[in-house]
Write a structure and sequence with these properties.
442 residues; mainly beta; Immunoglobulin-like; 6 domains; five-stranded antiparallel beta sheet; 1 helix; 40 strands; 4% helix; disordered N terminus
Length: 442
């Protein structure tokens, strides 16, 4: 293009010479930047740009002239300028556009931040097209865990250049594993992945935190030097579990792994995760054992319905009024049933399964004792017919003769007579108005 414009300008001069026309002297002032840029008119060097001072090109003939301005590391400027009688003097301002180079920056590892004069350009791999050609540019490469690196680049034109750089570790590498796996690893509180994972630890050390749902956090302080590699293995401890134990009926003895925990209902708020054995005991009920698996940080409720092992004994005595004992402990007295002489049923509830001794006692009668085996939920019926134990306990002095001795059978305050058994099976009735004195022989 430049060559063609120059030919056109020369041709115009030849035409003027042939026609004999007298050329008119004219002037072109060129201003602009950068300083030192070279100015050409119609292919001839005519001077340089000098700051605020114009580069004056004179004399020039009337007509079109090709203006060309060039400077190192800039895009050249080309344009036609017409001079004639109406425009014999012209000023042309030219600011050359800096030529920007092309740089491709690659790093090992990738993802490195690139800055130049404090301005962030991006992360590698990075194509840079904003740096002007000519001056030397210093690129700063930085990546967490690696030493910073400075790289100088200089471009003369738009020919792409490639810079491949390897960063040097500024930290150690901790190979983190956990049991169980899958724990989140935090470096000074910042997540770095899940185990197994490699974590860069800066020189001087840091705090590694292992975190897994259902387990207690583990913290480890790790000091490492640049380039050091070290395994860091942890075994996660489960978070305490909550265990609630409910029984029907309640007030049962609760034992966890042979350790007494109290009477139901019981809540254990810091149980160790894992397998445990629960044993429930309550008098009169069959003991129950159960294995339970407690999850880490879990909340478990175990319910037990106890099966009764108690039976019942029904006691009837003849005559009524007898005192009844079970295994040496008084449990009640039989009550009369009308005038039959036989008692109503005395029920002894909640008798543990097994063998028991029942004793029936009534003054004036021989005691009776009987062994009985009671099964769970079973009712045993025990009738007792007491045998009279004749023993004189009363002496009656009458107005008619010798005193009468025997066992008092009947002595009612409002009755007009009393009955005394004078010997087994033989009773004597004495009118109260004949009695002088009654003496108790006990």
């Amino acid at each position: 293009m430049k060559g063609m414009l120059l030919k056109c300008a020369l041709l115009a001069g030849v035409v003027a010479a042939l026609t004999g026309a007298k050329p008119m002297s004219m002037r072109l002032d060129v201003t602009g930047r950068p300083e030192g840029a070279k100015v050409y008119v119609d292919g001839t060097f005519r001077g340089t740009l000098r700051g605020d001072s114009a580069c004056s090109v004179t004399p020039l003939d009337e007509g079109r002239h090709l203006l060309h301005v060039e400077a190192p590391f800039c895009r050249p400027f080309d344009a036609y300028v017409r001079l004639d009688e109406a425009n014999s003097f012209r000023t042309k301002a030219v600011d050359l556009e800096p030529l920007r180079g092309i740089v491709l920056v690659k790093t090992k590892p990738a993802g490195t931040s690139v800055t130049c004069r404090g301005n962030a350009l991006g992360t590698t791999p990075l194509l840079i097209t904003s740096l002007p050609c000519g001056p030397v540019h210093t690129l700063e490469l930085s990546l967490n865990g690696y030493q910073k690196k400075r790289v100088e680049v200089s471009m003369t034109d738009r020919t792409p250049i490639v810079r491949e750089e390897s960063l040097v570790l500024d930290s150690g590498i901790a190979y983190c594993t956990s049991e169980p796996a899958g724990a989140t690893v935090l470096l000074n509180g910042i997540e770095r992945g899940k185990t197994p994972v490699e974590v860069m630890v800066p020189r001087g050390g840091a705090v590694l935190t292992f975190r897994l749902e259902g387990y207690q956090d583990i913290e480890q302080s790790v000091g490492m030097s640049a380039g050091e590699r070290r395994p860091v293995a942890v075994k996660m401890a489960g978070s305490p579990a909550r265990l609630s134990i409910v029984t029907e009926p309640d007030k049962a003895k609760v034992v966890l792994d042979d350790s007494y925990q109290g009477l139901s209902p019981v809540t254990i708020i810091s149980a160790t995760p894992g397998e445990h054995v629960i044993r429930i005991e309550l008098s009169g009920y069959a003991p129950v054992s159960r294995m339970v698996q407690l999850a880490n940080g879990g909340d478990t409720t175990e319910r037990f319905t106890l099966e009764s092992v108690l039976g019942r004994i029904e006691v009837v005595s003849s005559p009524a009024g007898a005192k009844v004992s079970l295994d040496g402990k008084a449990v009640g007295t039989t009550r009369p049933q009308g005038d039959s002489g036989k008692s109503e049923v005395l029920m002894i509830e909640n008798v543990p399964a097994g063998e028991h001794a029942v004793l029936v006692h009534l003054d004036g009668y021989f005691d009776q004792s009987r062994k009985v085996v009671v099964a769970a939920k079973e009712t045993k019926q025990l009738p007792f017919t007491l045998r009279r134990n004749f023993m004189a306990d009363t002496e009656v002095e009458t107005i008619n003769g010798a005193p009468v001795r025997g066992a008092l059978v009947q002595d009612k305050t409002n009755a007009d007579q009393i009955v005394i058994e004078i010997k087994p099976g033989v009773e004597r009735t004495i009118r109260r108005d004949t009695i002088r004195k009654i003496k108790n022989l006990k």
